[in-house]
Design brief:
Strand content: 15-25%
Order of helices and strands: HEHEEEHEHHEEHEHEHEHEHHEHHHEEEE
Largest sheet: 5 strands, parallel
Strand order of the largest sheet: 4-1-5-6-7
Low-confidence stretches: 3-10
Radius of gyration: 24 Å
CATH superfamily of the largest domain: Response regulator
Shape: globular
Mean pLDDT: 91
Distance between the termini: 95 Å
């Protein structure tokens, strides 16, 4: 054997031995579990949006652990998921304490925010201070995402500033054609709905349509009676009313609207399309008839390239949580979708360092398709995919209603009913 051949053979053997030793070292240093820290609200005003996200995460972790866990690239094998979850009781103060606990005491590998912008808002500065990447399922406040903060990624909802895109577009085209010109805007002053209100206001004012905002009022998120507000709106004589709140706000508003007898040609509320089961139980079919809302992923049928289809997930959800003890809506989908992104990040990350995890999440942008559609991030970490169409509840059978997409045209399955002028 010549010297060059011998050197190549020896080199090949050395490389093989090094690879084996590397794999052994990785296996030896692999943790017993990947610790995922998460908060949920079992009570209080945010329980309706928080608990389904938590159960979606829990569903994913338990299903994955039955197969041995998640594939974690740096260790070259599957590792079980340990979900460390605490109840913040819908309190931002309690949430702040628990976020700190997850980072400093539990030393979680992955930090997942509670649902919604209010309970996410306190996590953003804490995660940044500790240089811990915040996996944010549904906290969509635009102020969370800045060019100088690499420690947040939005996973399962578009950023609030683009959520309402189709509302002013629809009103400026189809609405104006039908004679709608005067718009009332009523919103809760939190990061989620306040950002949406600002976006709607900006889009209407920037447009060339004759739309005019004749009523513009922000109210506390704790608002539970809208009777006086509805009376004030009626006095402004709008054609269209846009109400932006959390589930409790929407329930109170729609109940009070029924009781008031006031009629408007276009009424929009956020959560009838996101948590339909909850709204149906509390408002009823009659109270939802004709209401416009976002059409969430629980009512769409995207073709994923990773994870279950919507139908598969819904069936699996019913088996996991029989008897309807946990409502299945957009937030149940959001929790599972967030977990899928985490799973892909673990399978592709260069290491468990927080910025390497961020890079792995960004590597999925524009490529990953789940039951929520295309996952796509802006450089700030804001979600700009997964946009929700505009839908309307229309009659379905005897006294029932069904949510149908009405705008934009490429997803519409029905024509919007704007009632008589």
């Amino acid at each position: 054997m010549g010297s060059i051949t011998r050197r190549l053979a020896v080199g090949g053997i050395a490389a093989s031995c090094a690879a084996i030793l590397t794999r052994r070292a990785a296996a030896e240093t692999a943790p017993e579990a990947i610790r995922i820290g998460h908060l949920y609200a079992a009570s209080g005003p945010f329980a309706a949006i928080s608990m389904p996200v938590y159960y979606g995460m829990k569903f994913w972790a338990e299903a994955l652990n039955r197969t041995g866990g998640a594939l974690v690239k740096p260790f070259g094998r599957k590792i079980p998921i340990k979900l460390i979850a605490y109840d913040d009781q819908s309190s931002t103060g309690t949430a702040a304490t628990l976020y700190n606990q997850l980072i400093t005491q539990d030393k979680v590998d992955i930090l997942v925010a509670d649902s919604g912008s209010v309970l996410t808002s306190v996590a953003v500065p804490i995660a940044r201070e500790h240089k811990q990447l915040l996996f944010d399922p549904t906290g969509t406040g635009a102020a969370f995402f800045t060019a100088d903060n690499p420690y947040i990624v939005l996973l399962s909802n578009p950023v609030s500033s683009i959520w309402p895109r189709y509302i002013p577009e629809f009103l400026a085209s189809e609405g104006v054609k039908a004679g709608i010109k005067r718009v009332a805007l009523l919103y809760c002053t939190n990061d989620f709905t306040g950002t949406q209100a600002a976006a709607i206001r900006r889009m209407i004012k920037a447009g060339k349509s004759p739309l005019e905002i004749v009523y513009d009022q922000g109210v506390p998120t704790s608002t539970s009676n809208y009777s006086v507000l509805i009376s004030n709106i009626a006095a402004a004589n709008p054609d269209a009313v846009i109400e932006l709140g959390y589930p409790g706000n929407d329930i109170a508003f729609l109940r009070n609207l029924q009781d008031s007898g006031s009629k408007f040609r276009f009424v929009f509320a956020v959560y009838p399309g996101l948590e339909t089961e909850v709204l149906m139980q509390n408002v009823g079919a009659a109270g939802l008839r004709g209401i416009f809302t976002y059409v969430a992923w629980a009512d769409l049928d995207y073709k994923p390239n990773f994870g279950m289809t919507l139908a598969e997930y819904h069936d699996a959800w019913k088996r996991a949580y029989p008897g309807g003890k946990v409502d299945f809506g957009s937030n149940a989908v959001n929790g599972y979708n967030a977990a899928l992104v985490i799973e892909r990040a673990l399978a592709t990350t260069a290491s468990m360092a927080q910025l390497d995890l961020r890079a792995a999440v960004f590597a999925q942008s524009g490529k990953l398709r789940t039951l929520e559609g295309l996952f796509e991030l802006a450089p700030s970490g804001a979600q700009i995919g997964e946009i929700t169409p505009l839908g309307q509840f229309s009659p379905e059978g005897s006294g029932a209603v069904k949510l149908r997409p009405v705008y934009p045209a490429d997803v519409a399955v029905a024509k919007a009913d704007l009632g008589p002028p």
